[in-house]
């Protein structure tokens, strides 16, 4: 399936989004609205344009006001479902962050469990969940139902076993019936919970739309490792466009645009490493972005004072 065909189908939707952002920006002008106008320009760009320009633009310059070093950062399209270069970079970044976060959380949970003198056989383990519902044929509606049900399911878990850390990603497939199937994959750390409880609670959270909860605790009796769980989630977070239906793929792109592909609990993943220097990164006002299409304005102090050195990121 060609990206040009998908862009042609999404053209009315892109035009409507761009018009809405532009109208909001015009209402806030002249004292505001820059963010909305920038979003309007981005909404008009097609996937073909974004992927074709990936890595080819002039580097953005990140000026560190603490040490004077200028870090050059290549422009990326961030269309991970269609761009191979961004898919690999996204996979590496998230697999690294999730592996470290899940591993740390598992060690801390096991330590607290043993400290309380609880039985080891039912101690905390890494668990991989796949949550599904009966598919209605409306991809956006199914995704909204699963998101709402996850909040209820999470609240039940909080009462049942506490508030375990989690990371969740979305998957979309055509399905055997060709209506489009939306799944939610979750990696979390929790002690032993009866499968019957999970199944009944998921049905209640989805108001009867839930089909089943697939629970994976590892193969051949071995526990799930943080490396396996991180790779499992990163694979679905960067999954490409595998749908054979142009209509279903367009519906899924509309459903995920502007929404997170990976969502984690607050304490699970640390913030990403900054492009600037660690010694000069905090407070953040020491770092200034320069637009990727050209140098900084002539009125800027950085333009008058050349940097001490240049480092390629």
List the helices and strands and how they pair.
Layout: H1 3-28, H2 34-44, H3 47-52, E1 60-64, E2 69-73, H4 84-115, E3 125-133, H5 139-161, E4 166-173, E5 181-190, H6 195-205, E6 210-216, H7 226-237, H8 246-256, E7 262-264, E8 287-290, H9 301-304, E9 309-312
Parallel strand pairs: 2-9
Antiparallel strand pairs: 1-2, 1-8, 3-5, 3-6, 4-5, 4-7
Give a description of the structure.
There is one protein chain. With 313 residues, the protein is α+β, with helices and mostly antiparallel strands. The chain has two domains: 1-45; 84-264, Alpha-Beta Plaits. The protein is built from nine helices and nine strands. The strands form two sheets. A five-stranded antiparallel β-sheet has the order 6-3-5-4-7, sandwiched between helices. The chain has a four-stranded mixed β-sheet with strand order 8-1-2-9, with no helix packed on it. β4 (166-173) and β5 (181-190) form a beta hairpin. α1 packs parallel to α8 and α4 packs antiparallel against α7. The protein is globular. The two termini are 34 Å apart.
CATH architecture field of the largest domain: 2-Layer Sandwich
Structural class: alpha+beta
The overall pLDDT, averaged over residues, is 79
Distance between the termini: 34 Å
Order of helices and strands: HHHEEHEHEEHEHHEEHE
CA gyration radius, whole angstroms: 23 Å
Q: In the residues, how many domains can be counted?
A: 2
Assembly state: single chain
Q: Which percent range fits the helix content?
A: 40-55%
CATH homologous superfamily identity of the largest domain: Ribosomal protein S6/Translation elongation factor EF1B
General form:
globular
Number of strands: 9
Strand order of the largest sheet: 6-3-5-4-7
């Amino acid at each position: 399936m060609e990206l040009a065909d998908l862009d042609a189908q999404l053209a009315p939707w892109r035009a409507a989004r761009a018009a809405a952002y532009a109208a909001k920006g015009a209402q806030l002008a002249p004292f505001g609205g820059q963010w909305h106008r920038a979003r309007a320009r981005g909404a008009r760009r097609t996937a073909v344009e974004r992927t074709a320009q990936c890595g080819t633009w002039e580097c953005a310059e990140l000026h560190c006001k603490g040490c004077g070093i200028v870090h050059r950062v290549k422009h990326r399209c961030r269309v991970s479902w269609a761009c191979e270069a961004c898919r690999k970079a996204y996979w590496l970044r998230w697999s690294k962050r999730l592996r470290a976060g899940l591993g740390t959380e598992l060690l801390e949970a096991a330590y607290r469990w043993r400290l309380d003198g609880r039985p080891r056989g039912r101690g905390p383990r890494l668990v991989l969940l796949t949550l599904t519902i009966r598919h209605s044929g409306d991809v956006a509606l199914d995704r909204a139902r699963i998101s709402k049900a996850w909040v209820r399911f999470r609240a039940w878990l909080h009462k049942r076993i506490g508030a375990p850390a989690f990371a969740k990603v979305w998957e979309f497939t055509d399905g055997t019936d060709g209506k489009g199937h939306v799944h939610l994959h979750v990696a979390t750390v929790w002690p032993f919970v009866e499968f019957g409880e999970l199944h009944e609670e998921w049905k209640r959270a989805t108001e009867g739309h839930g089909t089943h909860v697939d629970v994976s605790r590892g193969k051949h009796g071995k526990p799930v490792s943080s490396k396996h769980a991180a790779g499992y989630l990163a694979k679905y977070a960067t999954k490409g466009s595998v749908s054979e239906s142009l209509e279903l793929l367009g519906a899924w792109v509309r459903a995920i645009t502007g929404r997170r592909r990976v969502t984690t609990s607050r304490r699970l993943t640390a913030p990403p490493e900054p492009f600037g220097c660690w010694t000069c990164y905090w407070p953040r006002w020491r770092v200034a972005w320069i637009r990727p299409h050209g140098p900084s304005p002539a009125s800027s102090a950085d333009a008058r004072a050349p940097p001490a050195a240049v480092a390629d990121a």
